[in-house]
Design a protein that fits this description.
heterodimer, A: 473 residues, Rossmann fold, 4-stranded mixed sheet, 10 strands, 48% helix, B: 257 residues, alpha/beta, Glutathione S-transferase Yfyf (Class Pi), Chain A, domain 2, 2 domains, 4-stranded parallel sheet, 50% helix, 11% strand
Chain lengths: 473, 257
């Protein structure tokens, strides 16, 4: 059966953006697992967030109903995405904003770069945004001679450290405060050499550094958590207020948003603004919720642009099972509960979308061959499904995508032979006895099964299989 | 009650004591156990490794073999999870709606051991005697696919002589995950290291669970460490009675090279 048909939407192009790693997950994970500082930082951070989130979710008697509502709204959105996007476009335009359509990362980067150039600005300030990380906007701006400044504290740490984000919500989760202090001392112009690693002192240093940028930069680039189709309103939720500065101070505001972020009505925000903070930061409500609808004359940015980004999303939408991944509201709850993520960290996934949601989203955005190891980066323990505030069945998706992954020839032959044998009970019984004899060869398994005996002993073959015992009873 | 044993390929081949214990336990409670000999494997390994087309014939076999029985039990949360959550999906994916609905019927009559005992047979005190210090690991599929919740613990609390100690961070995966343990052996081992740390912290003599697969993983790691702690299937504890030979899987872990 072939899955290719005429008109299949394109996946995210190669050579641009940050959806692909340079090596497979097992290879990258192996190195990450050896980084003891990383292991300690991640264990501490994820344990803390898990406890905070569980406590505030426990306060809501209708959490299950909220999750079901969030899931239902997203299912509805995916069922009529083109219609909602056109409604959004009309509403934004009616409110004085300009809407641009970007088929992929290259087009989105070009649109944003051209818009910034038209203002004459040499520098833009950025609100933390996954979409712009996904398309590699910072790299594209730098190539055009424009300096992007990340204003989210954790993104700033990543940018100053010439590092990569490793978590959707807390991109510098792999760093502890001693490491952050060292990055600031090394990279932050004019920083106090007596800087300590107290969180308040580090935040104050970042605030001084950023304040100059806020007051002197005429263009900001943001993402969006939600876009309301009926009103044309965009929403960004955050904790620091740095996003609010970027969204209100500059003359020009450019928002890059994945097409799946649209929601039908203003009332739908009620559901998501309860789900998102409790699932992500473990707060009852996030400190800053900024919303804007086109241009308000004399107040805030007077040039407002919205770039609607596809970059593989239509291809995801075309898969009736896989499209659940587009329901994601980027809360990171699945990362925080994932036993694999907790030990490997986000960089091992290669993509800006790490953890369980990244393992199902990245391969769909890029096409399976470019991220074939990611659907296997899970023990299928199911903790992510329980934690997801919009009930994305990530284990089901992982298994679904494994069915589409390219398989090694030897494995494929072995699996086919095993299925044939297991479908013939007499052959099966003979194979069971042969397996017992094969164990005489020694206690270590041959490749590719030697991963087991590297760290675990094998059970010895029992004197009798169960069915032999039963037959002799 | 007449109960069909779905032994699972792993228990049949490598951990027959868990299956034998299931038989002894149910017979002691006055039930008739039958073993449909044409059963082999539920196909979970094929589905979870990305071979749903190969799994189809195993799903078809499983459904055909177990369709005649009113009650089916397996000493595994994971294999029952596959029957309940994967069989119909594999059939539908292949366009076989009739097989899918038959698979759903079989799934409705298929129980993990603690579910059968507590929900169907309505018993928590099975008359077992097991004088050991034991900690319980809730396997991921029994916990999150089947939602067995505290049923295994309720059964263990009624076992005479058994000292039950709580496992810290019990709900974290042990790192087995089927072929995950081989394809991502390093990450799997890192998860196992933390599970073993928690098991050892309980100072229990044994770690029990409802799945031979997870126990093979945890037990294989503990054996490699010469930790002096072993694993035992829940069925073996519940089948143990005073004066009888108990928990027969002793000394079965080999020393690796």
């Amino acid at each position: 059966m072939t899955r290719t048909f005429l008109g299949m939407p394109a996946t995210a192009p190669r050579g641009v953006g940050n959806l692909r790693g340079e090596e497979s997950f097992p290879a990258a994970a192996r190195r990450a697992l050896g980084d003891t500082q990383l292991r300690r930082n991640l264990r501490h951070a994820t344990t803390t967030i898990r406890a905070k989130s569980a406590a505030v979710i426990g306060e809501l008697p209708d959490w299950a109903q909220l999750r079901a509502a969030g899931s239902a709204i997203k299912t509805d959105v995916m069922a009529r995405l083109p219609e909602l996007l056109e409604q959004l476009e009309a509403a934004v335009a009616a409110a004085g904003g300009t809407v641009h359509w970007a088929a992929d990362a290259l087009e989105a980067n070009r649109i944003v770069t051209d818009l910034v150039r038209a203002t004459g600005a040499q520098r833009v300030m950025k609100v933390k945004s996954m979409a712009t990380q996904e398309i590699g906007l910072n790299e594209a701006l730098e190539a055009a001679g424009i300096e992007p400044v990340e204003t989210d504290l954790a993104e700033l740490i990543v940018q100053l450290g010439r590092d990569r984000p490793s978590h959707i919500l807390v991109p510098a989760i792999h760093r502890n405060r001693a490491e952050i202090r060292e990055i600031f001392l090394r990279e932050m112009p004019g920083v106090d050499p007596a800087l300590t690693d107290e969180p308040a002192v580090l935040a104050a240093a970042a605030r001084r550094h950023l304040r100059e940028t806020f007051l002197s930069t005429p263009v900001a680039v943001s993402g969006a958590n939600f876009a309301v189709a009926e009103t044309g309103s965009l929403a960004v939720v955050e904790s620091e207020g740095n996003g609010r500065m970027c969204l209100t101070l500059p003359e020009t505001l450019i928002t890059v948003m994945g097409v799946e972020k649209v929601i039908p009505t203003w009332a739908d925000l009620e559901v998501f603004l309860q789900l998102l903070p409790r699932a992500s930061t473990g707060e009852r409500m996030n400190p800053y919720t900024s919303m804007w609808t086109g241009v308000t004359p004399g107040d805030g940015p007077q040039q407002v642009h919205l770039v609607l980004l596809d970059n593989g999303r239509s291809a995801v939408l075309a898969d009736a099972v896989g499209r659940q991944a587009l329901h994601c509201i980027r809360c990171s709850a699945c990362l925080n509960v994932c036993p694999v993520y907790e030990r490997t960290g986000g960089h091992a996934y290669g993509s800006v979308y790490p953890g369980p949601i990244g393992a199902v989203l990245s391969p769909q955005l890029t096409g399976m061959p470019d991220n074939a190891s990611l659907p296997y980066a899970s023990s299928l323990c199911g903790a992510c499904y329980d934690a997801c505030p919009v009930m994305i069945n990530i284990p089901e998706l992982l298994v679904h995508l494994r069915g589409q992954a390219p398989h090694p020839a030897g494995e494929k032959a072995a699996m086919g032979a095993a299925a044939y044998t297991m479908d013939h009970p007499r052959l099966y019984a003979a194979a069971q006895r042969a397996a017992g004899l094969a164990r005489l060869a020694g206690p270590a398994l041959p490749p590719p099964l030697n991963g087991w005996t590297a760290s675990r002993d094998l059970p010895a073959a029992p004197p009798q299989t169960f069915r032999q015992w039963w037959a002799e009873r | 009650m007449r109960i069909a044993l779905f032994v699972t390929c792993l228990a049949d081949t490598l951990f027959p004591e868990a299956a034998k214990a299931t038989v002894r336990l149910l017979e002691r409670l006055g039930h008739e156990v039958v073993f449909p000999a044409d059963q082999t494997c539920c196909g979970q390994m094929h589905v979870n490794t990305g071979y749903p087309d190969d799994a189809l014939r195993l799903v078809r076999r499983h459904v055909r073999v177990f369709a005649p029985y009113d009650v089916v039990v397996a000493p595994s949360g994971s294999c029952v999870g596959s029957v309940r959550h994967q069989h119909a999906m594999v059939a539908r994916r292949a366009g076989d709606e009739r097989l899918a609905s038959r698979a759903e019927e079989v799934a409705r009559r298929t129980y993990e051991l603690s579910e059968l005992l507590v929900d169907v047979l309505g018993v928590t005190d099975v008359g077992a005697y097991f004088p050991h210090r034991v900690t319980y690991h809730p396997t991921c599929h029994s916990l999150r696919m089947l939602r067995v919740a505290d049923k295994p613990l309720r059964l263990l609390r009624e076992v005479r002589g058994l000292e039950l100690v709580e496992l810290p961070q019990a709900e974290q995966c042990c790192g087995f995950g089927g072929t995950f343990a081989v394809k991502n052996a390093d990450t799997s081992t890192a998860m196992l290291a933390d599970k073993m740390r928690n098991v050892l912290a309980t100072r229990a003599e044994m770690c029990t669970a409802g799945d031979s697969s997870c126990l093979m993983h945890i037990g294989g790691g503990l054996s490699r460490l010469r930790a002096g702690v072993r694993t035992v299937h829940l069925a073996e504890i519940l089948a143990s009675i005073e004066g009888a030979e108990t928990a027969g899987e002793r000394d079965r872990l080999e020393v690796g090279s």
